[in-house]
Amino acid sequence: MRFLSYLFVICLVISSCNSQTENKPPRQEIDFNFDWKFFKTKIPLDINNLEVQNEWEDVKIPHDWAIETPYNQGYKVTDSTPSLSYIGWYKKEFKLPKNLKGKNIRIDFDGVYNNAEVYLNGNKITERPYGFSPFSAEITNEINLGKTNTLVVKVDRTAFLDGRWYNGAGIYRKVKLVITEPIHIKKWGIGITTPKISKESATINIDTEIINPLQKENLSIKYEIKNAENNIVKEHIVEAKNTTTSINIENPKLWNTEKPNLYVLTTTIIDKNGKVWDVKDETFGIRSLKYTASDGFFLNGEKTYFKGVCLHHDAGGIGVAVPDDVWRRRLNILKEGGVNAIRTAHNTPSESFLKLCDELGFLVQDETFDEMDYPKDKRKNYNSKGKDPLTEGYTNHFQKWGEQDLKDMLLRDRNHPSIVMWSIGNEVEWTYPRYGKSSGYWNSNKKYYYDEPPITIAQMKENMKNNPPKEFELAKTAQKLSKWVKEIDTTRPVTANLVIPTVSHFSGYTDALDIVGYSYRASVYDYGHRNYPEKMILGTENWANWVEWKSVLDNSHVPGIFLWTGIFYMGETSDINERGSDSGLIDFAGFPTPRWHMFKTLWNNAPEIYATTIKLEDSEYINKNGKAVEKSKDLWKKRRWGFQPFKTHWNYNKGENIVVEVYTNSPTAELFINEKSFGVKKLASNNDHIIKWIVPYTKGTLKVVGADKNLIYEIKTATTPSKLKIKTDKTELKANSYDVAHIEVQLTDKNGIPVQHINQNITFKIEGPAKLLTVDNGSNAQRSKFNLDTCITDEGKLLLIIQSTKQPGDVNIKITSKNCKTEILKIKTH
């Protein structure tokens, strides 16, 4: 009888859908990113006196106002109100029809940095201090249907130095208007897990939370699962009171890093009369996770290494309002380099970013906090002294908002198959003084990064006892955070990035963690496993050098590492001549660095070979009987967050001694200059996994050849620039004001050889329906504004990024540079 009633409901659903085709769907999710106005001020204003401001600027969301000013986190603070410290105001006027009466209406913000307050028609609706959290403004009771409404968002960035890196400023992530029936699926109210998986079948568990203020009975939930080809693979109907259900799928296509297969679950709420109250799509993947303290990590039953990188959320000259296409290009470049995992250091990422990770096949460690009970000392990065209101950060809000900020991240992100673990924090031990004082490294001759602890565990425990906690104790805070995670999701482990794991292990901190993340502590992987064999140890922050990866290969219990970092990022520098950290595998513009080529040889099975050059006098080597010998026997220890200033050209003065470094996974390599061999060298003979030669410079062709003679890399001497080599990733864009084209420009000589030893200005003139987002040469030394139409190259190249408008048409980009033939690139928008 129940089956017949469900069959009847299905018939009613089909009939209802047919009758509603000309009406609005029960759920509308509307792009709310356009037609905003903005201004920023140092003068405190009240919501009721904004009319005094008549210089509103038209902007589109996402929007980062801070990137419009040349950025430098290392400048000296000379007064209490530096030029980058502002309060921003956003305003949007909109009208909704009267026939929406009775509907539920809200506005979803994916992130506002920071201290956001949201007003509708002068009334405060909500607030959110944390700049990385998604949140909603429920406006059902405040909206004036049929009339013009004014939405205002206040963003307080007066504490502009609240983070150790560039956080941006403004409504920097997407906004949408969501309209539902009074009976609807709760925001983030669908949870999907895949507890049982085999090649033959998979069990899909679904939890659905319904808001039913009408107390309507006899509601049903219809589930429909489609595969990547948009074919229905399963349909299932249950009574709405059964909020948890299981569905079996035959012959599932599993999600993994090589084949990130995705499914779409469509959830429909129906009443007994066939009325559809809500329809919601949720993307998910089918995959299993297994973590073992002794044997590592297994994805779908296969041992898998985390070949990971840490990423901040800015994109060089674009700032933090990053278009999806920009992240797609960057992630694809990382993927090509062998990266399969990302740690979202150190805060909640955007929803769009995680969707790309699902689609492209990355394993994600979703991280939420860089500060907890106590603040970090950002002042050392800013050259300021004493307590500074400009550096006040999230610690001021953690006690009140920590639980909601964490749980909102978990609820929003839990269905992403890319997410394989939750991280509750980053290197917070330093903020609890007893941890550092108890480690034993203070006033010892032991080096923290390279040596086992200088004292025993018993001595460290005694030190902890003699240094009682202050108001807050890290172990208790971590237990609280871990408990909040488990209340939402028990299918993924909890981890954190620990900078003093030797103390954290016995202090109670790691009791709250399923996986213990070590920050730059590969030297104690074995120590940790010996003393705490029940705990999985993972390298969650590591230098980009061979020794760090070798420590994984040498310790079967360590499942991988996350390099610091995947991409250059803004901030965290005290050098006024730098815009940020150049520790990444790819630079600010997304161009691969020597580190990227190095790890491509380590993290890919395909044969790889690449060469860089540097003058001996500028290097960290000395010439010893014709061999490049390290000035320090532990040169690898110097290669922490930076490499030597390698070049990718073959242009020097005749006779100069040049060091050639070769990165390869070939067992041998042979160096030729103009077909003259300088010998074959073995990779295994180099403890840093880099083959090196010292050779006198001779103009011509430098060539390195692997053991397979077809594995060749060449660098040719270039003359002066006379041409521009243009490469674009798109020749057509959608006229949607979102699509982006990346245009790479390289100086070449008359023979087409890249000119990488000479830099000069390149100018762009854009005609047609597109706007300039940034011109970025990738260099850490680029300090000018990034929205100018001219820029000097670095190593002879730079990147132009343009974005479509809503107007279709032809875009002509005229590219000019001194003594070079002018090029015109044509891009269509439609």
Descriptors for this entry?
eight-stranded parallel β-barrel; globular; TIM Barrel; 48 strands; Jelly Rolls; GH2_Domain-Containing; disordered N terminus; glycosidase; Beta-galactosidase; 35% strand; hydrolase activity, hydrolyzing O-glycosyl compounds; single chain; 830 residues; six-stranded antiparallel beta sheet; 15% helix; signal; alpha+beta; 5 domains; Immunoglobulin-like
Q: How would you sum up this structure, described in words?
A:
Helix 2 (324-336) packs parallel to helix 3 and helix 6 (457-466) crosses helix 8. The protein is built from twelve helices and 48 strands. The longest helix is centred in the middle third of the chain and has 19 residues, at 395-413. The strands form twelve sheets. It has an eight-stranded parallel barrel with strand order 21-22-23-24-25-26-27-28, surrounded by five helices. The chain has a six-stranded antiparallel sheet with strand order 3-2-4-9-6-7, with no helix packed on it. Strands 41-48-47-43-45 form a five-stranded mixed sheet, with no helix packed on it. The protein is α+β, with helices and mostly antiparallel strands. Strand 47 and strand 48 form a beta hairpin. The chain folds into five domains: 2-22 and 184-284, Immunoglobulins (Immunoglobulin-like, Sandwich), CATH 2.60.40; 28-180, Galactose-binding domain-like (Jelly Rolls, Sandwich); 289-581, Alpha-Beta Barrel (TIM Barrel); 605-716, Immunoglobulin-like; 723-829, Immunoglobulin-like, CATH 2.60.40.10. Helix content is 15%, strand content 35%. It is globular.
